[in-house]
Design goal:
Number of strands: 0
Number of helices: 4
Mean pLDDT: 78
Strand content: under 5%
Low-confidence stretches: none
Distance between the termini: 27 Å
Radius of gyration: 14 Å
Largest sheet: none
Number of domains: 1
Length: about 90
């Protein structure tokens, strides 16, 4: 249930930042959209393993991605998220 709510939340937030046609977008373009959206909405300096903390150390296993599955890479976006994104976009286009 929690995953479903977060998927819908991510998809709905992404609508505000995306004006393209979801039918014409490839899966990779949608995956990159989610990654870029998460880069915009960062709340800390250690959300992805490749980030560095305030003293310049690489975050690695201390990152939010490593603990909770935060979207940092295109592989992190599931097929369910892509399907939800496309379905939501169909209703508003």
């Amino acid at each position: 249930m929690k995953t479903t709510i977060s998927l819908l939340f991510i998809a709905s937030i992404s609508l505000a930042f995306d004006c393209g046609n979801p039918i014409k977008k490839t899966e990779e373009e949608i995956r990159e959209h989610f990654v870029n959206l998460n880069k915009i909405n960062r709340t800390s300096s250690c959300q992805c393993p490749y980030d560095v903390d305030s003293i310049g150390r690489r975050c690695g296993a201390r990152s939010t991605h490593s603990k909770s599955g935060f979207v940092c890479y295109s592989e992190d976006v599931s097929d369910v998220q892509i399907l939800a994104y496309r379905n939501i976009r169909k209703w508003i286009n």
